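Sample pair:
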Amino acid sequence: EFRGCLSELRSNLSLLRQFKWIDQYTRAILIQMSLYNPNIQMFTSVSFLLELLPAGGVSPSTRFEPFYVQGLTSIVYLIIIVIHVLFLIYYIIKEFQDIHHLKIGYICRIWSFIRLGIIICSWIGMAIYLWRYVEIKRVTNLFHDTNGYLYINLQLIAYINDIFNIIIGFCCFFDHFRRVQKKAKSSQNEDQEAFNYMVKKVICWLGFIKPNQFDCQDEKDEAVRLEYYDTFQYFPIVTDRLMEILYRMR
């Protein structure tokens, strides 16, 4: 739901310019807005940044950060969280048993750090999930009280959501290597098996990611060539206009 209007935004910019908040010394203008889609329960934090270059011209940039309102809305979410906590407690007890039996040898095993990474990232992810739930609850209550007519800054929730996604990515990353450990146990040389597996993954990454980057770079180069081509194409026209302005200034 977009409660504001474009004319009001323009009038605010004109007012800022009238009171000389925006003048020739201004280097950037940041416009923020918050959007809400009630059909899918999704908030979106929108930021428009207009950089005023010293040599003239404007360099615009935009950032959209959507996130869903997913809280403890049913008993299913609560059951899943309880099961997740029980599994974490089980793995923690198991790791303490390994530390007690292996002692200093526990540190010498690389797979021990991977399991510790899964446990630590899981607990951090749960804490961030609860933090995000509290913030979303606060924002939804504020949105309900104001009916969307008051600006609500969603940057904090978007920041929390980004951290949560990063933590989930680390959990998936460590879990992937835990599966490599199970696969390597069937081999006589675990280190060699793990090294070969990592080499295969790097080759696959180079095979799929690098060509995509090269294609994107070619598209950027083509866009730059077209831009400079258009600039030089209209260079005589711009020069004639400049000479006409200088002639009038005489």
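The chain has two domains: 1-68, 75-186.
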